[in-house]
Amino acid sequence: EGEVFEDVFGNTYTFRDVLSAVDSLQENSRALLSDVEHKNKFLVGTAMSVSATSMKRSFKAHLGGSLSTEQEQALNIIEENISMFWDVLEKHGPLRCPFPQLDGTTQEHLFVGYILHNRLTKTKGLSLVLADTYHFLPLPQTGAPARYDTVSFAPLIERNIPYWYQPATNFYTCRDQRYWAQLATAIDLVRRPELSRSALVRQQSSLFHLILSTAGGEMLRYEWIVHARLRAGTLLIYRTFNYALCLQTNPSLFYVTFNKSVWRLAREPVFVGSGRSTHGSVYKTLPQVRPELSDDMFITVMKGAQIRQQVWREEQNAWREGHKAYAIARRT
Hints:
Layout: E1 4-6, E2 11-14, H1 15-43, E3 62-63, H2 69-83, E4 86-98, H3 100-103, E5 108-118, E6 124-130, E7 135-138, H4 154-157, E8 163-166, H5 178-191, H6 197-203, H7 208-232, H8 240-246, H9 251-254, E9 275-276, E10 284-285, H10 286-289, H11 295-302, H12 304-331
Antiparallel strand pairs: 1-2, 2-9, 3-4, 4-5, 5-6, 7-8, 7-10
């Protein structure tokens, strides 16, 4: 119970913190049910009055800002990565929004948003890129010790790629993804100015279907990681509570806690945790890594996720073929 867990950004939390967030979700569900039942009685004439729901909510995402040459270069490579699997239907930004999940401050950061069409599944999705801050995880040489589990990065380590580019907006980087709803709303305010601004800001759900589509894609990537750990024999020793239960369930999104029509408590839920790590980040920044990388290696680092996915796809196909051959041999 006293074990301290940590997300990618250094936010720390305990099992008690997780239970506290669950308690808030349960309390809100009771408040929401009570309110709906009371308003239903008012509609059928068995209640004399109905109280108005408070709809005030802080909204801080907006257009504005510019990127440095280095940041633009990194963003261009990310856009090339996106175009491998998606058609970019719309691009929006830079968008300014506080990102306390990242650094524990109210400082505004710059994001770029994309509305996408998946050429394989024929579905739409939303992609957000933190465009002013990039995280790079140093990868050890083959066989060298590391401060973290390296199974997920084995395809890159084997190819002597020195860093893993960690997208900051992946849902698993922290336990609070409500900034996605704010940025999506800022995008929709630009896309559809004819809609009621006050309603969009209150509910922050007009592009929620695109966020859910993106979450589905992220769960697919998690499945690839599970398969990789299974093949490496490390699945059972991995910190399943921290990664799977806490960082892959996304209650801040799936319980629609950002929508005032759903969240009825006066206090906001706390998902991010109760503290910050004091031992320092394992990640390096763009200004730290860019001078030591050639242009070609920088592009390779930024394409690490695509390289890894291709290797895993080939390995999984080989595993399936081997399993199929084994099954046929047993039958004969």
